[in-house]
Task: structure prediction
Amino acid sequence: SLRVNLDMGKAAYGWMIMKDDNIPGTVVRTSTIPEELGRLVYLLTDKTGTLTQNEMIFKRLHLGTVSYGTDTMDEIQSHIINSYSQVHSQNSGNSTSSTPSRKPQSSAPKVRKSVSSRIHEAVKAIALCHNVTPVYESRAGVSGETEYAEVDQDFSDENRTYQASSPDEVTLVQWTESVGLTLVNRDLTSMQLKTPGGHILTYYILQIFPFTSESKRMGIIVRDESTGEITFYMKGADVAMSTIVQYNDWLEEECGNMAREGLRTLVVAKKSLTEEQYQDFESRYNQAKLSIHDRNLKVAAVVESLEREMELLCLTGVEDQLQADVRPTLEMLRNAGIKIWMLTGDKLETATCIAKSSHLVSRTQDIHIFRPVATRGEAHLELNAFRRKHDCALVISGDSLEVCLKYYEHEFVELACQCPAVVCCRCSPTQKAHIVKLLQHHTGKRTCAIGDGGNDVSMIQAADCGIGIEGKEGKQASLAADFSITQFKHIGRLLMVHGRNSYKRSAALGQFVMHRGLIISTMQAVFSSVFYFASVPLYQGFLMVGYATIYTMFPVFSLVLDQDVKPEMALLYPELYKDLTKGRSLSFKTFLIWVLISIYQGGILMYGALLLFESEFVHVVAISFTALILTELLMVALTIRTWHWLMVVAEFLSLGCYVASLAFLNEYFGIGRVSFGAFLDVAFITTVTFLWKVSAITVVSCLPLYILKYLKRKFSPPSYSKLTS
Result:
């Protein structure tokens, strides 16, 4: 009975979550753990796409001596228009001698380039160095017209969309379009850019080196169709690029500045190659690609031979905006006693900045940035320094974390668990899952992981309760998770309202079903012991079956509709959630209280029946069973905190079923086989004596509990009752 009731209850909670209009699009993929949502202590979240929207906005272009922000983009635009109009006037003038005229320039000593030419180079590099493909929606309705349509719509701006694996790249290409240099076409071998003047420039793609999480950079070699120049462009993370570009004094500092503003940075560089250099590279590259052993290493080595002394062009900053209502949600979760850990693959500064702007770390809090450690001694010193600080958030990188866990696992986890917030940056997917397992192992508390991409799947599956967000990165995470939501802010309602209710209801339902079984067992025990332990069943066949099903099933199951406070209250006072993590709704103490209630009520019902019915002893079954059903119905009413109309219907329905069954189940109301033929005396049931005696027994079994409950509410009210009054 307990198993069946709880499983049906869990299915009902899942249905309620999916039907909640305040969190549309939520899917419950696991029907067995809705209660886990009610007792979480650690929430481990990803950053990109989970706390942020994964929609990038181009914010900053830095050229070393001059920096352009959103308000000065029009300057870039005018520079680009000027430089391209000059190029075209030159080209039209000396189209014949365009190639020779470049020779003296390259041999001349390097003069400091004008800002205009540097902007020109930087924008061109950003427009060429990427993996983006422009896509045109075909406007032709009929399939036969497609050939004409392709000509008509060729490069029209209205219906062009860009497609790429990363939203950062699309943003950069859209930005170059906004300043006048537009990517209009791309296939496997060439790319075409449209200048502000409407001319089309064609570049042949000679080689492309895609972005990998190890190299953290991508490169491309292109040949300009008009001049035949070969250029190697490259862009990547500052960590990877700082060693590749020529010496400069501003890159590191500016990267730090941008990261502190919460921008994602990319460094762009280029290198001009002569025909001979490129041919030499190509032959070595093809040779490396054909090698059988260590192919990847050899290919990487050849590419690295090009990645030297590159000319640093610019630094770009792209902003990833926070999702709606992330701040109030994190605030609410913190007030609910949930400790939030952010595990991200981003840079330390960017992660710290997002942690502050999302209020994951409150403004007043100190932040302890864990210095990079590589040895046991360093880890020891750093842990000691951290131990001296109180109530401060911890920011640590994946490498340092690895070292600490290797030598001082227990100490580190103990310290980190005391922090109000922890940010782990540069984390790999396996590290994320490892952190979840560590928390479960060391604290024994419930953990929840929330993420949006394939890289969060391992963490989601390792946690007690996984939540996936359907975002830009596909549905991998939401399909692997136990619960799937559409926005981060929905997690507040999912935990505070549904998680809390599911837990409280399951606790009440489970204990009530135990009480229902124990009370009838107690009555049988008392009955047998009075009759010299004769093995005579008190209730025959259908009464036993009907007791747990038709007579008490509906009222007991209606406990799944019970709620102590309204959803609005639960969201307004997240502190109510904190009480649940102590596990007081369902503990040995509450279980034993229910056992005592069952024994007390079972004893009273049976003894009462035996005491008051000396004369009509044959009718003891009818009397005790009637009192038992009434007691159960009253106990349900006593347990309920907020009435729902279905509960009232269930109570009266069960009572009606019982009264109706008295008429046709008469042979069951005798005792044992002896009086099997004894008819249920309808005349006796309708007498006043029967009614007052049954009422008396029921009152004695239930009234003390009502009085005790009233006194308890009076002298030590639970926290939620202070809000409902």
User: Anything to note?
Assistant: Residues 231 and 485 are 46 Å apart (CA to CA). The domain at 24-54+322-488 is CATH 3.40.50.1000 (Rossmann fold).
